[in-house]
Amino acid sequence: MDAVRSAVLSVAVCEGVDEDRFLREIYPLRKPAVLKGIPLGSCTSKWTIDYLSTTGGRQEVKVHVASVPQMDFINKNFIYRTLPFDVFVKRAAESVHTEYFISKDEKYYLRSLGVDPRKDVADIRKQFPSLAEDINIPEFFEKDQFFSSVFRISSPGLQLWTHYDVMDNLLIQVTGRKRVILFSPQDAPYLYLTGDKSEVLDVDNPDLRKYPQFAKAQCYECQLDPGDVLFIPALWFHNTIAKEFGVGVNVFWKHLPVNCYDKTDTYGNKDPVAASRAMQILDRALKTLEELPDEYRDFYARRMVLRIQSKSYSNHYK
To answer: CB 316: neighbour CB atoms within 10 A?
Structure first.
């Protein structure tokens, strides 16, 4: 018999937020919040399909293409293709395509990249300077904390996999409506993780026979309308569904000391250096346990878990 899932909680909605209020009332809570009434500039009225395709130009962009709405990054149920930006925008806005790669109803997703993704971070001011002039990005952080500004465009109905980021970020919904489902970092044990991604694709109708622990995860939800900004604290899991053709910009910033982050990370999704090192040490410890018979391996593994809980779990984290 399937387990019963927790009730869905609503994300807090805050009207008329400025930098002072954000830093004083919202940011210290370390919980997601929908921020309304932030002056974003002319992008909310200008960024129509025609304007985007004309102003964005014909530069080539690498996009995800999938035959199904739920994209799965673990099993890669999509392909990468390159299109001129103006062509991509028009295709992404269509429900049925006359030109396509896989199927007439395929879905498209753009996550902008640096000029050289191995060395350069995404920055809308560099990759799409003409469009960047239309948007006022809320600077709720010091200039030297800025990491990236990622330009995103999604086909209607597209759902992205549940994952976490290691930096705080603002998801600016410029056009279209988007549904966002979030989970607390404390619910990581219930999300069946592979790296930073959850194996549970359908968060609305999960297979609880395959993923029984998922029933324990507390789900938060909100809808973003054009002009809304969602604050997503680092390590909060999130899953997005484009209700319509949608355009947004993610702004990431380094809220930890700079030396905590991997210098080779251009996507902003590599775990902090100390966390990566600790996981490597743990993997070696688990490998060492394999030298013991099953009964002993089980016993000492449980002792290791208890030691981690007693030494590292926070009593103040809620």
So the answer is: 4
